[in-house]
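HOLO CASE FILE
Compound: inosinic acid
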Amino acid sequence: MLVSGLFFMPVKNQNLAIIGAQWGDEGKGKIVDLLCGDFDVVARFQGGHNAGHTVRFGEHHFSLHLVPSGILHPHKLCILGNGMVIDPQALLNEIESLRSLGVQIDDNLRISESAHCILPFHAALDVAREEAAGPAKIGTTGRGIGPAYETKVSRYGIRIGDLINPPALKEKIDLACAEKNPVLESVYGKPKFDPRELYDRYLAFGEILRDRITNTCLLINESIAAGRPILFEGAQGTFLDIDHGTYPFVTSSNCVVGGICTGLGVAPKHIHSVTAVVKAYTTRVGGGPFPTELTDAMGDHLRKRGNEYGTTTGRPRRTGWLDLPLLRSASMLNGIDRIALTKLDVLDDCKEIPVCTSYKVRGSTWQTFPATTLAHHEYEPVYKVLKGWNRSTVGTRNFDQLPDEARAYVRFIEDETRCPISIISTGPRREETILR
Ligand code: IMP
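Model generated. Tokens follow.
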């Protein structure tokens, strides 16, 4: 059942960005799936198969990594933009697995010829570096995301368009192997890759993907010109952004709304509104600062009740209370118009719900999130304790049917962030949603 068109009425031909406001895993997949009925095109603009979106409806359960969640709806054009890094094997596996669940994938999925390829040496380098870093590791997904973006910025990356240009592909794979192999072997003591074998394999990927590879920048701008509404689907979250996140504990792309312009070739004036997805508490996976983290039984409770285990790697996520300075910074960085609040029901059993309202920093009070990673231990969260509701909200579909304390929690977040909360998720399924 598609609920979106009934309640969420975008102004005709308006394009919408959906962005994660925290450290990823906010539940963007569900929100994109819920809203995309109102859009003709769904486009990803950054990241790769480090992302993991889970969408459930009825008894169906879909795990998406590279393919936009729009693929679950017939007649949506889904685009993998130039700002992404794509492992062709992972993409083909995902297409296969979605097809086996009855999802139709034919010319509704197009890939930018300018997106960069992840090759096996990228993943090998990612894993080797993490191993070598010991306790200082970032906690990456090990998918080769960072090394692939590095090769892109170094200007000898292999682009998706190269997969269907055999001489260019051969030259670029030879060049990349000439540089990566010695690093893998002598710095990390890892096996090297055979350029000939990689060439054959990637040429074969090109043959399979040939009809999907196109100038998506042109495609998306033609869609804009034709007035076909577009949903821009963010992956990861604002504080994993390479520039604005908790560097160096970040991913390697721009997850903030600005990434849409470069990652798809879309001018800012075509991004008409921004919905940020916010989890009702906070999680992060991997290393890095997390001032409201709970390392006690409550943290375990949120992890268990919220099923906080990574969709991509299965790792347990770190859990903590909601952080309003983080959301205020996210609002500033993304120009958030509305919030979609997810997993409210996970707080059902909490007697009290502390919320971080500001930070004490060397005697002064900060309302936004501290930007310098190194000094995070100097920031002390200040909490306001709200009353819990101690009642099940699972599956609630009407705001007025929420307990008073749950409504107060929602209104408190609205007041403190100055952003209206237009969607509240009360369970993983499409239908377990309040639309205001
Ligand atoms: P990478 O993107 O694999 O390089 O990982 C860098 C950091 O981003 C690590 O802390 C990962 O756990 C985190 N990360 C990457 N993708 C996601 C995601 O989709 N959700 C949550 N965290 C992510």
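CASE NOTES: The chain has two domains: 16-111+216-435, 116-214. The chain has twelve helices and 19 strands.
CLOSED: yes
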